[in-house]
Amino acid sequence: MVKPIMKDIFFLSQKSEPATKSDQQVITDLLDTLKANAAGCVGMAANMIGVKKRIIVVNMGFMNVPMINPVITKKTGAYKTEEGCLSLSGVRPTTRYQDIEVEFFDSGWKKQKQKYSGWIAQIIQHECDHLDGIVI
Asked: Domain for residue 89, yes or no?
């Protein structure tokens, strides 16, 4: 179900809790909401739809991919950039990394470890910041 976008900075500034298998509906809602906002959004964290769980969805070009309890385990190639956010107006400066490694569970609860670079790595970093209560 498509959910409204959370814009409350106090809520968005709180750390999210680990997701469990009972959070399957949150994944579905995130995927639906990202699809509905595809014109202006390439990734979304659960707190952006009012749920403090460690779940993100990322547009990988060909499909939207959910990541449950993601942890960035390695990052290299720091660079400065500016980012916007569907929950906030305007853009803000930030530091991102060109290459990252991420451990997460997929939607079937299988443990994954993947490497990402460039634009997709930047999206994942932005959404993981949301999970830690970092508002960009």
From this structure: yes
Using the structure block, give the residue that is written with the tokens 């500016």. Answer: 82
Q: Note if the pTM is more than 0.70.
A: yes
CA atoms within 13 Å, Cβ hemisphere of 72: 22
Cα-Cα end-to-end distance for the chain? 26
- Give the DSSP H or E segment for 80: strand 64-84
Could you list the pLDDT tens digit for every one of the 136 residues in the chain? 999 999 999 999 999 999 999 999 999 999 999 999 999 899 999 999 999 999 999 999 889 999 999 999 999 999 999 999 888 888 899 999 999 999 999 999 999 999 999 999 999 999 999 999 998 8
Closest C-alpha among 9, 1, 4, 2 to residue 89: 9
From 82, 83, 103, 127, the catalytic residue: 127
Q: Is 103 a catalytic residue?
A: no
CATH number of 77's domain:
3.90.45.10
Strands 55-59 and 111-117, bridge-based pairing: unpaired
